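Appendix B: a complete holo record

For completeness, this appendix reproduces one full record from the ligand-bound portion of the collection. The bound molecule is zinc ion. The inputs are the chain sequence and the ligand SMILES; the output is the full three-dimensional arrangement of the complex, encoded as structure tokens. No fields have been trimmed.
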Amino acid sequence: MYTLTVPIKSPRQLPKLVFPERCLKCGKSKAGTRAIQFDVSKSDKKSVMLEFEPPLCKECIELENRLEWFSLLPFTISALLSAILGFLLLFFIILPLLPFWDFLGINDRQGRVVFFVLSCAGALASAVVGGTIIEFALKLLAAPYFGKLILSRPPTIIALSRDLHDIVGLRAQLTSDKKILTLTFEHEEMAKEFAALNGLAL
Ligand SMILES: [Zn+2]
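The structure of the chain with zinc ion bound, as generated:
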């Protein structure tokens, strides 16, 4: 593992990143790239994308496709199912059973609105928790097939909330102030080549 930092002076002056012409993971000849994008704009209204295209060989692209599929799809499906289940349980079973609605002076019609709002909030929490737990369990199950690589990736929910992208051989992360891009290379040799190509200090 080798980490390089790339300063981002301003959204108007984006660094142009040049990668070596071979696979970041295994060093074989480049068969394609896997684009990574970060929004480096500091305002919410307009987005400014910093884009770069790390090279991969044919096998590593296929591996990356499988890893991506396996990172996002189980999370999406299990988050959705957890949300539905959480909503139904809260709305129809748990909330109506709670004893303090009369005590709070909430009548039936108000109760339905309160239940609905609380159930939606609960559904959102279930989606995050359920999605993450099931994703983790599935990753553990898949580890023998994909190798430890899949376990080293952060849970989808963290990757989504932090500016972070993983591809095989590289982890790219933007600091929260959007001023520094860090690139962690799996291979020191690739990091050195990249640093030389981009005039970065090691
Ligand atoms: Zn490769």
